[in-house]
Structure formats: structure tokens, C-alpha cells
Amino acid sequence: MQINFSSKNVSISPNLQEYAERKLSKLSRFFDNIENIEVIFSEEDWKDGSRAHRVEVTIRANGKIIKASEANQDFRSSIDLVIDKLEKQLKKYKEKMIDREKRAPSLIEMFTKEEEGGEKKIVKVKRFSLKPMDIEEAILQMELLGHDFFVFIDADTYKTSILYRRKDGNYGLIITDEGE
Q: Is pTM beyond 0.85 here?
């Protein structure tokens, strides 16, 4: 886990960085694969004329970004508050992931069936070529096929996109960022 510190209009002591590092390292108990953490220290004026010490933290883990920011009268208090906030967010995220794993079958499970030996196998494979089209044409194609989703290349952006029907009857669109 890499921790990068930066500051805006304020200098940060090595002791404060050590304190923040110690606190942030404890977050790994909630989330194993933390790639890096960005910490930004800054000062700002509050309405009552006093100075606030803000700490902003951005965590990147498993392709996810988790952010939190807190301001208080001193940096150590701000660090403590932002750590509390991050712990709550990470606990909530981890619980969602565990719940999702318990509830939803994986994609492989959805497209496989169980054989007598308890082994799962893929029972159908479809191949099709993606064609550039606009969103209206993709909706029409999806409706004509009677599917709940449709994969196509957006004619405007040339990115692979996935159109899907939402439970409320409207449509959703997923636009991929292939390799970006």
C-alpha cells in the first residue's frame, strides 16, 4: 500500500505524516487490496474567522475509488474524523460485496447448468459482430430481438456500449473505457 502526501498552502511535519500513516494502515483490515492512498492537507477559513485544517483522503482499491474529507481545528482531529468516515464507508462496501456474493449467482453460474457429477459447464455460446450504431438504433434492435440487453459500438464515440432495460421500463447505458 502506497501513501502519497501533499499539501495546499501549509507545511506538514514528518510527525503528522507518521501519525496519518499509522492511522491509514489500519484500514487494510477492512480491505485487503488497497493499491494507493492520496492524502491532501489544507487550511481554510471558517465563517467565525478561525482556521480549519482539512484532510482529504482518496483510496484506490480493486478499481474502486473511496473518498472522504474532514475539517477540524487541528490536523490530528481531522485525521481521526476522516479515518472514522472511511472505516464506515469501507465496512459498508465490504458488507455489500459479501451480501452480493451470497445473493447473486456469478455470470458463470447463470450460463452453466449442473451435471450429474456436480460439475458446471457452459451450455451455450453466442458469437456476433459488433456494429457501429446510434443509441436509437440499438434500442430498436434490442426491442426487435426481445432481449433485455444489447451490446453495440456507439457510432459517435466508437466505444463498446451495453444498453439494458431497467425494471422501471426505461433504459440504462453502460459505456466502456477499454484500457483507459
A: no
